[in-house]
Prior knowledge:
This protein is of the alpha/beta class. It has helices at 24-34, 49-56, 76-85, 102-105, 127-132, 170-188, 205-212, 232-237, 270-277, 281-298, 301-312, and strands at residues 7-12, 38-43, 61-65, 89-94, 118-121, 137-139, 162-165, 192-195, 217-219, 243-246, 262-264.
Amino acid sequence: xxxxxxxxxxxxxxxxxxxxxxxxxxxxxxxxxxxxxxxxxxxxxxxxxxxxxxxxxxxxxxxxxxxxxxxxxxxxxxxxxxxxxxxxxxxxxxxxxxxxxxxxxxxxxxxxxxxxxxxxxxxxxxxxxxxxxxxxxxxxxxxxxxxxxxxxxxxxxxxxxxxxxxxxxxxxxxxxxxxxxxxxxxxxxxxxxxxxxxxxxxxxxxxxxxxxxxxxxxxxxxxxxxxxxxxxxxxxxxxxxxxxxxxxxxxxxxxxxxxxxxxxxxxxxxxxxxxxxxxxxxxxxxxxxxxxxxxxxxxxxxxxxxxxxxxxxx
Length: 314
């Protein structure tokens, strides 16, 4: 089967929130189209299972892009079994970390989408635990879309030199994110900006590219876990942000090395300042150019979808 012959049915949350938000589900659709696949994208929330079965008839793959609390109407377990019996491969996909977060651990294996023939998540360090729950799990390092790939334009109204983009939920992120934010405020004072601390301060689309083009560095972290990082890694690097992120097992094998980002030992924030102090404008540009190239060549949704297809389809 060539990629242009593949028919894909996506279940997810397309375009919720309109232009005010970025939905990775929409990036998945774009990536499938870039591969030349025929795509039917269905909103899963409150849709009867029978409608999904009809849509999946004759498809090569049904890909369920999970959003917590977005549930179909009817028996999702039996729906998947009937779709599989008709010859369509079923796949579940989400970019969360599950193990180590009790509220999420309880979900594993206990919702219909977990019983798809294949399940892909960004939680790559807990394979044995997924298997013990009966989940046929595969690691999916989070990718980026192409809509906002590349540099932004510096915004002269931005006075900050350093920025962190994202919220803070202590039960998920622990104390390390609070410590990172506190360090950023101590080091840069009024020149440190926290975007996303509330819903009103969130920033998306080209405005985020422009912000990254306007600051010296973007600080980053994720909940600590091996072979897991949030999609802020490809989403920041792919936009040309000079990105600082804690060293994490699995990053280097995916190309996320010291050549494309500022890596620091978790909790040792002074390492960020020391590396920045040793970089002139040319070095900074080499790093961000290399980061955009890496994401463009290895970490777009079309790359990840092609890997999924090679894994699950005969």
